[in-house]
Amino acid sequence: MKLGEKERRGIVTGGTWCADHNKLVSRWPGEEELVEILQNEVRGGGSACNLAIDMKRLDPDMPVSTIGLVGDDEDGRLLVGEADAVGIDRTNLIMANGGRTAHTDAFTAADTGRRTHLYLPGTAAKLTPNYFDFSQVTARILHLGLPGVHPKLDAAWANDANGWVTILKMARAEGIATNLELCSIPAERIATIVRPCLPHLDLLVVNDYEIAAIAGHDTGHGSSVGADQCIEAARHVIDKGAMQLVVVHFPMGAIAVDANGAVYTKASVSIPQDEIRGTNGAGDAFAAGLIYGLHQEWNVEPALELAHASAAASIRGLGTTDAVMAWRDCLKLASSWGWRSAF
Length: 343
Description:
CATH topology: UDP-N-acetylmuramoyl-L-alanine:D-glutamate ligase
Number of domains: 1
Structural class: alpha/beta
Number of helices: 10
Number of strands: 13
CATH architecture: 3-Layer(aba) Sandwich
Helix content: 25-40%
Largest sheet: 9 strands, mixed
Low-confidence stretches: none
Mean pLDDT: 93
Shape: globular
């Protein structure tokens, strides 16, 4: 599969850069209950941050640049430092004077591995399409997110339904292939923002909840996800847009549907329970592995395999990007753990 113009190379991420204040707690409490914080650390978070760092961890030689807005504060400086540490081109990662960087209190419950996010928009609330200029960008693929947490981008912009549409159109006009990352906001909100974007996307990588929201189809959730329902929802969505490929991931595996109607399935890695530290960032790692494979013009099946492998590696760390490794090492890890039974 070929995405973007052949002479282009690399990935540009855009949108959400936030600081994840990660807290591992013994369990998720009820209201007015107290639980112990077992571990506390601050790491980079958000789709633009996570995928950019994951991509450089998968392949340090892959050109990666980013576009976003952070504050001139401790969290903003931490994010800039993380970008520099892995060699991301942050020319267009702007540090706003007097603004507070978007941040998330990200709680992971040790007993279940499930996560809960409390989000403060900060500078993310000020991000508009005016910050995006692709005229000097040489990347092949844009990874953009997150609809629902950027008020100015979520609203109508010029003659477009929202600012996300404007940015996607700008990127495609320069020959850059487009992907949109989502987060689990209310389903009706996802549908309102994302459906107008579909004609301007080349790729869509989402989870079971998100594809159900876009399609308006029930797919189940968590361990009860139905692969057939995900395929049906993905087919509905691909018919409404310009995507070459729609990919849906869920705990037991992933499905992909291409523009010709072909369906691909791949079960997920059988991760030992004692290796799981947190799922925060696993979806970003999945997307990074998939996009890396597609950028390298792999077939869909090996790209799905790397997507699962990089997600499995990610789950070994509490931070969103700490445990992602070089792509060959991710595949070796997945092979050593084995794969779940077909779903």
